[in-house]
Write a structure and sequence with these properties.
The two termini are 55 Å apart. The chain has 525 residues and is α/β, with parallel strands linked by helices. Strands 1-2-3-4-5-6-7-8 form an eight-stranded parallel β-barrel, surrounded by seven helices. Strand 15 and strand 16 form a beta hairpin. Among the domains are: 279 residues, Aldolase class I (TIM Barrel, Alpha-Beta Barrel), CATH 3.20.20.70; 73 residues, no CATH class. The chain is built from 17 helices and 16 strands. The chain is elongated. The longest helix has 17 residues. Bound molecules: acetyl coenzyme *A (ACO) and pyruvic acid. One of its GO terms (molecular function) is 2-isopropylmalate synthase activity. Its EC number is 2.3.3.21. This is Citramalate synthase. Belongs to the alpha-IPM synthase/homocitrate synthase family.
């Protein structure tokens, strides 16, 4: 069986609120999808938008697709207009793609109320458009808009649209859940009903599901299980309203769960990279919790999971993460048990397996600190320092603190300046340094750098990449506390540290000290 993976990220996916691709963006997305191994890339609607017309023009010389063919999208001819006179139909031919995808009305209510034409004229629009485009040497797919709603309302008319398109020479007729309101059982019933009513095989049919019931992926899989061999999806599920069927979840499910050969050999493992690269181009933060490709798709927090994962990672993962290009991660939080701590430490290159007492101490410390507002989930560097402090050799701090002071000064002219002084001991020397900053934390950071730079010149490259503050509600009568996360970057790597205190400056100080310690102190061999 040959399956057709039809991607519509650049057409339907671009209908998502907030997305606006440039032509260069579209070309880059097309290259990524081709690399992933999809069979068809629907690039847009030529003639409807100048950008899409330009995309198809430039694609001819700028795209060298290895797996995919380009598809131009448009609608059937207008009611009452001869097909050869229809400007949109001409624009489709001008796009010079080997494949065209036409949207056709297939719900009688849309024919009479939205198109304001007759049932017969709509069938003629489908027939004329398909026959003409096929006669011009194009492969034609027909997207039957509102197929499922139409089929439930008046199955005879909806089936007659499908029959007309097939008889006119359409290679595929695609059943669209345009309003996205269907459930998997309803998809199965309609697909099997149509196939037996018309006597057509699934290799003449396709499926296109919007995600308004959050069932687009399940609905697509249900249609394929019912025999359909062409499916339309978008990268990361982008699309109109809540979106479309997520290409990556559909591919993962079909290939890994149903064993269907939907992508060329070796392509599935490109999913994570392609998903994130497209998110970058679309300017949408990747969804951490997206199935298969999200950064948290294989992240485990619960201690019980980790203890079984230690025996065999597949005991708590539905697939081996690397087959889709992802990684498993162990999260260290209050829910950690000794197994979580051991696995996380191993991830960081630290062996706690042979040190049961240290393992128990770290587990206890993590639980205790987390109960007081600390969070190590996103602060690997602080966690690593905590583990190292319990192992032989411990952690040598680059300095010890005698005291610090930070002030905020609101001046008459409205400017606000902070000043900080630190008194520290560095390699046996007492150093006092003062610096200004735009806030007390910035001033403290600057003062520390002044104090340490002669002994630690590497500090000059350290950059405060991110600083997050969260006020945590007080519980059980305790005061509210502040949690600070500091992300530091240097020499192509970055690390995150955490600090917690009732006072935001003190919380920041803890996170800063861990950040400098982690970056400056070499890991013991
Ligand atoms: C389900 C989907 O997502 S399908 C894809 C939808 N995508 C888009 O609409 C994005 C691009 N669209 C556009 O740029 C514009 O809507 C255009 C260029 C296509 C049309 O613009 P306009 O000519 O100004 O028409 P408008 O958008 O107001 O109305 C659509 C027209 O197409 C007609 N139409 C709608 N569906 C079809 C169809 N399947 N076959 C033929 N005509 C159709 C409507 O009856 C209406 O005709 P009218 O102008 O005679 O009333
Ligand atoms: C064609 C299409 O995008 C739809 O019916 O949803």
């Amino acid at each position: 069986m040959t399956y057709q993976v039809f991607d519509t990220t650049l057409r339907d996916g671009a209908q998502r609120e907030g997305i606006s691709y440039s032509v260069v963006d579209k070309l880059a997305v097309a290259r990524l999808l081709d690399e992933l191994g999809v069979g068809f890339i629907e690039g847009g609607w030529p003639g409807a938008m100048p950008k899409d017309t330009e995309f198809f023009e430039r694609a001819r010389s700028e795209l060298d697709l290895k797996h995919a063919v380009l598809v131009a999208f448009g609608s059937t001819r207008k009611a009452g207009v001869a097909v050869r006179e229809d400007k949109q139909i001409q624009a489709l031919l001008d796009a010079q793609t080997p494949v065209l995808c036409l949207v056709a009305k297939s719900d009688i209510r849309h024919v009479t109320r939205a198109l304001r034409t007759t049932a017969e004229e709509n069938l003629a629009m489908v027939r004329d458009s398909v026959e003409y485009l096929v006669s011009q040497g194009r492969r034609v797919f027909v997207d039957c808009e509102h197929f499922f709603d139409g089929y439930r309302f008046d199955s005879a008319y909806t089936a007659s649209v499908v029959r007309t398109a097939l008889d006119a020479g359409a290679e595929r007729v695609v059943m669209c859940d345009t309003n996205g309101g269907m459930l998997p059982s309803q998809i199965t019933a309609a697909v099997t009903g149509l196939m037996s009513e018309l006597g057509v095989d699934g290799d003449r049919l396709g499926i296109h599901c919007q995600n308004d019931t959050s069932c687009a992926v399940a609905n697509t899989v249900a249609a394929v299980e019912a025999g359909v061999t062409h499916f339309q999806c978008t990268a990361n599920g982008y699309g109109e309203r809540p979106g479309n069927a997520d290409l990556f979840a559909v591919l993962g499910n079909l290939q890994l769960k149903l064993g269907l050969p939907v992508l060329p050999e070796g392509c599935l493992e490109k999913m994570v990279r392609v998903s994130h690269a497209i998110a970058e181009i679309a300017n949408i933060a990747p969804d951490t919790h997206q199935a298969y490709v999200g950064a948290a798709a294989f992240a485990h927090k619960a201690g019980l999971h980790a203890s079984a994962i230690k025996v065999d990672p597949l005991l708590y993962n539905h697939v081996e993460p690397s087959v889709v290009g992802n990684d498993m991660r162990i999260l260290v939080t209050e829910m950690a048990g000794r197994a979580s701590i051991e696995l996380k430490s191993r991830e960081l290159g630290l062996d706690l397996a042979g040190h049961p007492e240290a393992l128990a101490r770290v587990t206890e410390q993590v639980k205790d600190l987390e109960a007081h507002g600390w969070s190590f989930e996103a602060a690997d560097a602080s966690f690593e320092l905590l583990v190292r402090s319990q192992l032989a050799g411990g952690v040598t701090r680059p300095f010890t603190l005698e005291s610090y002071r930070a002030t905020v000064e609101h001046r008459e002219d409205g400017s606000v300046i902070s000043e900080a002084t630190v008194k520290v001991r560095v390699r046996g020397e007492r150093v006092i340094a003062t610096a200004e900053g735009n806030g007390p934390v910035n001033a403290l950071d600057e003062a520390l750098r002044v104090a340490l730079r002669r002994h630690y010149p590497a500090l000059a490259d350290f950059e405060l990449a991110d600083y997050k503050v969260r006020i945590l509600e007080g519980t059980h009568g305790t005061q509210a506390v502040t949690r600070v996360l500091v992300e530091t970057a240097a020499a192509g790597r970055d690390w995150t540290t955490v600090g917690v205190h009732e006072n935001v400056v003190e919380a920041s100080w803890h996170a800063l000290v861990d950040a400098l310690t982690y970056g400056l102190v070499p890991v013991p061999a």
